[in-house]
Design a protein that fits this description.
alpha+beta; Arc Repressor Mutant, subunit A; 4 strands; 17% strand; transcription; ArsR-like_HTH; Tscrpt_reg_AsnC/Lrp_C
Length: 159
């Protein structure tokens, strides 16, 4: 797992292991080893090295948002006229304290930021919106309601 830049080099076995972990991280080392054509100890060592190198950032579970009354998804497009470091710090702090924000991305182009927000309903979104604009000045906000989730995955292609 060596490389000249800061990213580790992954061989075919590392990639197969990552594929198995992404499919189901709860499966046993024995099962992963069998599926990738190796034995338990080398698989464990590779997983450990990939964790240490930051390739594997964390292991978690995926929860159905409806089970937690978070079945309504909005994509929030934000334009700002302020680009100073202080505004960005306050905006980041506002996002980090809002558990409804699942993703936040700074964009190139006409829209400055896009947020993925999960709430119970439109009224809960409005509560989120009011809290956000109370924390930080925003030039324009457009909320897009997701009518249907067609594809959602955390699995990255390993090949």
């Amino acid at each position: 797992m060596a490389r000249t830049d800061d990213r580790p080099e992954l061989d075919a076995l590392d990639r197969r292991i990552l594929g198995e972990l992404q499919a189901d991280a709860a499966q046993s080392l024995d099962d992963i080893a069998k599926k990738v054509g190796s034995s338990k100890t080398p698989v464990w060592n590779r997983i450990r090295k990939m964790r240490e190198a930051g390739v594997i950032r964390q292991q978690t579970v995926i929860v159905d948002p409806r089970a937690l009354d978070r079945g309504t998804c909005f994509f929030v497009l934000i334009r700002t006229s302020e680009h100073e470091a202080d505004w960005q710090r306050r905006f980041l702090a506002a996002l980090l304290k809002r558990p409804e924000v699942l993703e936040a991305h700074r964009l190139a182009g006409e829209i400055d930021y896009i947020l993925k927000v999960r709430v119970s309903d439109a009224a809960a979104y409005d509560t989120f919106y009011q809290a956000l604009i109370a924390d930080v000045r925003i030039f324009n906000v457009t909320a897009l309601l997701s009518m249907e989730e067609i594809k959602a995955t955390t699995v990255l292609p390993v090949g």
